[in-house]
Write a structure and sequence with these properties.
Distance between the termini: 54 Å
Largest sheet: none
Radius of gyration: 24 Å
Helix content: 55-70%
Number of helices: 3
Number of strands: 0
Amino acid sequence: MNVTLRGRVQQILDMMIEEGYANTKSEAIRLAILDFGEKRVNEGLLVKGKLDLIDNEIRGGRRRVLNTRQALGIYAKHVK
């Protein structure tokens, strides 16, 4: 696969090599993809953990769930 990089992306790639984070452009690109993947996966795990916590609070009666009318309050009259 051939990839053409220009501008800021090329500067960052060159900087990764100059500062010793990677030995080649291919290695720098692999590192960047892995870093992106780890951040996205970790974000997904954090979201899942928070949603699980909320579900447990609802089941335990420590968190209330509102229906549409309750959530909208005085604006409920505008919803059909």
